[in-house]
Amino acid sequence: MKNIFRMAFLVMLASLFCGATVVANALEEDYTYVYVNSETGIDASGNGDSPDNPLKTWTWGIKYGQKEKVGTLVVVFTNEYHFNSSPSEVAHDYPIIFTTNDGKTDYAKENGAKLVFGSALRYYLNGDTAFENITIEYSKSLNIIAQYNPIRMGKGVKTVNLTSEESQLLVLGGYQAPKADADVTKDSHVTIEDGDYYIVAGGTRDSFDKTPLYFTGTHYMTINGGRIANVFGGSVRYQYSTSAVITVNGGYIEDFNVAGDLSRRLNGDASVTFNGGEIKNVNVNNIIGTGKITVNGTKIGAMSVWYANDEVSTLNERTNKPLYLYYNANYYTGEEIETFKVGFDYTENIASVYAKMGANGSGNTEDDPASFADAFESAAKLGSTVVLL
After folding, report:
1. Which residues pair with 347 in a beta bridge?
2. Burial zone of 113 (CB within 10 Å; 0-12 exposed, 13-18 middle, 19+ buried)
3. Residue among 162, 29, 149, 168 nearest 92 (CA)
4. How many CB atoms lie within 10 A of CB 30?
5. Among the residues of 261-332, which ranges form H helices?
6. CA-to-CA dists, residue 353 to 332, 350, 358, 377, angstroms
7. CA contacts within 13 A on the Cβ side of 115
8. How far is CA 156 from CA 28, 134, 159, 248, 303, in A?
9. What pTM value is reported for the model?
10. Cα–Cα distance between 100 and 36 in angstroms, integer?
11. Which residues lie across from 287 on neighbouring strands?
């Protein structure tokens, strides 16, 4: 019987490993690599499949995915690649990752590979695009305009302003100066993991003829790292947005605005979760619909609720939608919590204190439980819930 059990177990284990290998290979095969070198490359059919046989231009690199019918296309730059005008991607219905590291060779170290933009340029996305392990240099300013395509500034992204110590790099989830016939129904998806930015906005900036447009989609933003001077969940300059769903897990932000700049408002709802990182100022601004703000570990210098003018304030009063603050008392002092609460209609402590016999941790997480005595004392003081492990 023991031998039968042992054999069955080994068969099961083998099948699990085989399954894992199949899944891993499937994931790996879903990525197709194409190589671009502006000095040695040749834009021709059959090229791009290796660093020794590169394409010459970024455009041909993107088109490579059309021919190969890829899952995700990884465009690997192997030299210093220059953009001297405002480039617009070839339309692509597959995700693209731009990088200088293919996992085997770091071409930034090997050849000085990087992307270099000219002065005051704009880069337009025309599909799901990410940048990873790559240096982006620019002069004066650079706008990366997603046009409601998913944009991710991934890990290992280094951004360098060649003409100033301060960043003038903007990432927009929406359009730059759209015309009146622009599609206003799309959602945006913005993820920041690394790099230095002046503005990161979920929505649209400027207007072709200074006429405000009303965008009805939702802005989805995730900030996991990097350094950002200004975050706007809504649109900026002339435009109005509807809803925003934002999560901050890391990085440093100088000024965080749930909606847009000045009187740019969110006509719908906002849901913001602060899990990590550091923010100097949080502005819960210009929300016309329901606002749900969760502070769950992010270091916050100050938080305030405000409306830019009487018009925005009146719109908020007419809709009569509440502002909720959910706070984790494990991470903030009583004084900080009281200042956070100002301007909210409802507030709630969502903290749990984890307790386990013989433990001596902080109790803030399941992995770091406190003793029973410490947990109950802390919960009584903070008004938290005790979770027994």
Report:
1. 325
2. buried
3. 149
4. 11
5. 310-319
6. 14, 10, 15, 10
7. 26
8. 20, 6, 10, 18, 31
9. 0.91
10. 10
11. 266
Q: Which two tokens stand for residue 194?
A: 């690394």
Q: 273: which 2 tokens?
A: 């979760």
Phi, psi of 388 (to 5 degrees): -90, 130
Write the single-letter amino acid at 135: T
Q: pLDDT 10s digit of each residue in the chain, 389 long?
A: 334 334 343 434 444 444 443 333 334 558 999 999 999 999 998 899 999 999 999 999 999 998 877 899 999 999 999 998 899 999 999 999 999 999 999 999 999 999 999 888 999 999 999 999 999 999 999 999 999 999 999 999 999 999 999 999 999 999 999 999 999 999 999 999 999 999 999 999 998 888 889 999 999 999 999 999 999 999 999 899 999 999 999 999 999 999 999 999 999 999 999 999 999 999 999 999 999 999 999 999 999 999 999 999 999 999 999 999 999 999 999 999 999 999 999 999 999 999 999 999 999 889 999 998 988 888 888 888 999 99
Interatomic CA distance for residues 315 and 218, integer angstroms: 20
- Residues 171 and 129: their CA atoms lie apart, in Å, by 12
Largest separation between any pair of C-alpha atoms in the chain: 82
CA gap 141, 121 in Å, rounded: 7
| DSSP class per residue in 342-379 | TT-SEEEE--EEEE-TT--S-SSSTTSPBPHHHHHHHH
HSE, CB side, 13 Å, CA atoms: give it for residue 81. Answer: 30
Q: How far is CA 384 from CA 190, 275, 300, 368, in A?
A: 34, 18, 21, 16
Q: Do 57 and 38 touch, CB atoms closer than 8 A?
A: yes
Structure tokens at 118: 């000219």
Give buried/exposed letters for 270-283 (b at 16+ CB in 10 A, else e): bbbbbbbbbbeebb
What's the token pair of residue 177?
């100066």
Tokens, residue 376? 């109950």
Q: Which residues contact 313 (CB under 8 A, 6 or more apart)?
A: 307
